[in-house]
Design goal:
Elements lengths: L5 H26 L8 H9 L4 H13 L1
Length: 66
């Protein structure tokens, strides 16, 4: 049994995904594992700290009318 390096495993995995899913499917599959950047909790606080329940209700009503 041959022991593959991390680079060889990665290359063979990408090749297998591309063959099985096609290039677009491979990319869509790999995007599922992107952890993103930043802190969702900190960013969420920036978006919502000044938002009141009345603001939320107004936005919901506006969406329903459209």
């Amino acid at each position: 049994m041959t022991v593959l390096s991390q680079n060889e495993i990665r290359k063979k995995g990408i090749e297998a995904l591309a063959e099985a899913l096609g290039p677009v499917g491979m990319i869509r599959f790999l995007q599922q594992f992107d952890t993103g950047k930043g802190s969702y909790t900190d960013e969420r606080s920036q978006w919502l700290d000044d938002l009141t329940i009345d603001d939320v209700i107004t936005k919901i009503r506006s969406k329903k009318q459209n």
